[in-house]
Automatic annotation (TrEMBL):
It holds the Pfam family MarR_2. It comes from Mycolicibacterium arenosum. Gene3D superfamilies: 3.40.50.1360, Homeodomain-like. The keyword Chaperone does not apply. It comes from the Bacteria. The keyword Transcription regulation applies. Residues 73-325 form the Sugar-binding domain. This is MarR family transcriptional regulator. Keywords: DNA-binding, Transcription, Transcription regulation. The lineage of its organism: Bacteria, Bacillati, Actinomycetota, Actinomycetes, Mycobacteriales.
Amino acid sequence: MQIGAGGSTEDLRLALRAATLYYLDGLTQAEIAARLGVSRPTAGRLIARAKAKGLVRIEVVVPPTLQDSLHADEERELEAKFGLTEVVVAGHGMDIGAPGRPAVYASVGRAAAALLMRRLSADDVLGFTWGPEQVAVATALAPGIASCRTVVQMDGAMSTASYQTGMELILSRSADVLRANAIRLPAPLYADPSTVASISSDSVISRTLEAGRRADTMLFGVGAASTSTTLFEGSFLDGRILDELVALGAVGEIGGRFFDAHGTPVVTELARRSVSVPLEDVRACAKTILVASGAAKHVATLAALRGRLAKMLVCDIDCARWLLESK
C-alpha cells in the first residue's frame, strides 16, 4: 500500500489509527502493520505522517514532587547554548564564602559520579585533578557499576602547608571502586622553572604526565582567580601572584593553569612553573567532565565553557540559571 500524497481523509484516518496504536497502546510497527493490513514500512510512514500533521503531541512532564530535583529544561538549554554533550543539574550550590569542604558538594558529587560511571569504558584512562568537588565524586562512586583501566593524577598535589588536597583519597577510592591501576604524580603543583624541567625529565613523573595528557576521560573542577580559590587557601599562591594573574585577565584555573574569560590560557611565569596537564590537552580530550558548584565559581565555569574546556558539565541549579542568563 502507498500513502496518498494528497493527504485524503482515509490516509489521515489510517495515520491517526496507527499513531493511536503506537503511542497509546504500545504496539510495535510490525504489530501495527498486521493489525491494519499494511506493510511494516507503511506503518512507519503512517506514524510519521500523524506526527507531521500535528495529530500527535508528545509532552514530557516532571512530577510536581520532583520539580526541585529534576531540571531537564535547564540541562537541554545549557547543552544547546554551549554545545555540550551532556549537562546534569543537581541541587542548590553553596553561598559565597561558605567553607569549600567536600560535604557541601555531595549533591553535585553524586550527580557527577553517576554521569562518570555511565560514560566510562573498561579500557579508559581516567584523569583527575584534585579539589573538594572531585573528592565528593570519588566518595559517591558505587562499586560494581563501571570500571576503567587506569586512574591517573593530572596535577601535582604536594604542598608545604598543612593542607589536605584530597588527591590520595580520590586516587585510592577511584582505583578501588573502578578496579583500575592508580598512577600517582609525586610532585608539587608549582616549582621554580629549573626544578620543573628537572622533575619533568624524571621517568616516573614524565610517564605520569604523559598518561594524564592522553587520558580518555578527564574529570575536574575549576578555581576562581581570587583568594576564594583552593590554591590560595592551600598556600600554593600568594596575593602578589594572584594580582598579576588578574591584571592579565585571568578569571579561573583548572589543575593550577589559569585562563581568561574566553577560556584562553594566561601565559605567565606561573605556567612555566606548573606541574600539571596543559589546558590544550584538556581541550583536546574527547570526554571531559567539569564539576562546578558555588557562586564563587560561576565566572570561571562560564569561561571554561566558552573555551571548550569541557564536553560535559555537572553543576548546581543556581549555577545553571546564572550561566543561562549570561551573555
